[in-house]
Write a structure and sequence with these properties.
The chain has one domain: Ribosomal Protein L22, Chain A (Alpha-Beta Complex). Helix 3 runs antiparallel to helix 4. It has 4 helices and 5 strands. By secondary structure, it is an alpha+beta fold. The chain starts with a strand and ends with a strand. 29% of the residues are buried. The longest helix is centred in the middle third of the chain and has 19 residues.
Length: 121
């Protein structure tokens, strides 16, 4: 087994600006329908939720980029909260090399940060 990690931090305003500039295209390229519904349900803090999911996906790509030969899309990884509110990574495509992915998310008014640990088979 091999363990790999990735971390990303982003300014929430950068995500907000990209979403406003590219209207719906940014959302559909980066986020799944479930992620969009979740973020939009947090009206006053929706950009924080988008930004932290974006950071999580960046962290995933950092953790797997040197380990996998195939390129994956943003939507191959979905960041969802389980029944008790803990964020989890759901693989929307089969990646046989990956055994599990653990994610930790945090955000404040200005920044969003994500840390990812990937366990490879």
């Amino acid at each position: 087994m091999k363990v790999s990690c990735g971390t990303d931090i982003i300014e929430i305003d950068r995500v907000k600006d990209a979403m406003e500039k590219y209207e719906g295209k940014f959302q559909t390229e980066i986020f799944t329908e479930i992620e969009v519904n979740y973020c939009e349900s947090h009206k006053n803090q929706k950009y924080q939720h988008y930004a932290v999911r974006f950071a999580a996906k960046e962290a995933i790509f950092k953790a797997i980029s040197n380990k996998l030969s195939k390129n994956y899309s943003w939507n191959d990884f979905e960041i969802i909260n389980n029944e008790i509110g803990k964020p989890e990574v759901f693989l929307k495509t089969n990646i046989p090399e990956i055994e599990s992915i653990d994610v930790s998310l945090s955000h404040c008014k200005e920044y969003a940060v994500a840390n990812v640990v990937v366990l490879f088979k």
